Amino acid sequence: MPILQSCSKILLGFSLISVMLISQINAQGQMNFPVTVNITSPVTLAVQPLCGALSSENSTEVNTGILLSPTRTIVAFGDSWTSNGANGTVPVPPIMWPPSPSAGSQFTENRRASNGFIWVEDMANELSAKLLNYAWGGAVIDNLAYNTTSPLNATGVPRTDFVAETSLFLQQGRFLDALVPNETLYTISFGINDDGQFKLAGGNMTLAYETYITKLGELQANGATNILVQGMYKHTPEIDLLQNQIFAYLRESNAVNGTNIAFVNLERLFDTIASNPSAFGYRGNATCLISANTIVGGCNDPEHSVFWIPGHPSQNSHRLISEYTMAVLDQCTV
Hints:
Layout: H1 3-15, E1 19-22, E2 35-38, E3 62-63, E4 73-78, H2 119-127, E5 130-133, H3 162-176, E6 184-189, H4 192-201, H5 205-221, E7 226-231, H6 237-257, E8 260-265, H7 266-275, H8 277-280, E9 307-309, E10 312-313, H9 315-331
């Protein structure tokens, strides 16, 4: 397929997603943040959360008191499934510039690993909330935990980690937003790259856990009272154990200091999509693009694909992640 023809088809698929700018005044007379709203997504959420008990030994979907309606700010940490390329700054609009496959990547390396908004942007838009996004593509919990990323290893190649993301937020976050505790939601989404790096050359998952809860503790010490953790979208023994340990820490935090915590199991969402994609409205190619570097050779119908580039959700799947996350918060209160 000629490059121009391929690009035009991808752009056509993108243009089918109509967006509009909305400013609203809420019941308290405050002006909500202007948001862009996806109004023509062809996929729908066809699974509901499987709520569990806070006393569970394994991670399960719960919410001990996080309320969506008062949320005015979301602070996000994680990897490419959460990153919009902002890294604590103002994000580039998610405009496609073929042949680049990354929304918003014409002028800067700050980009999304998708063809539109990332789930946490959708969530912020839905709530008319301000988003401070520190997530970055390729991020792990702690570089020191894996032989492939440890700076102590001569062959290690460090990447962004939860340590660096938290450090940057603590340096600048209070200058960017008032961070009113009961109006601020902190979201943490790690595991994909931790699993990948551990499988490549091993590492220390105990250190990863210790770093994870240390960073959560630092956020709590600096005012975080609403913490949402997303579990990884697929099952692996090492990450399952890690998530169970993190869940136990969250449960203890709730009991000891009253931190409102929530856990969202993305594995349930994506397992259900894999078993019955048509129920959600997906069809055709499960993954639209064959490369993370170009749209050339990609599918003709990206709006009905689960993944945009290999291993990374399409903009419509991100919308479902947002909807599913909010469903857990609404339905799984304990």
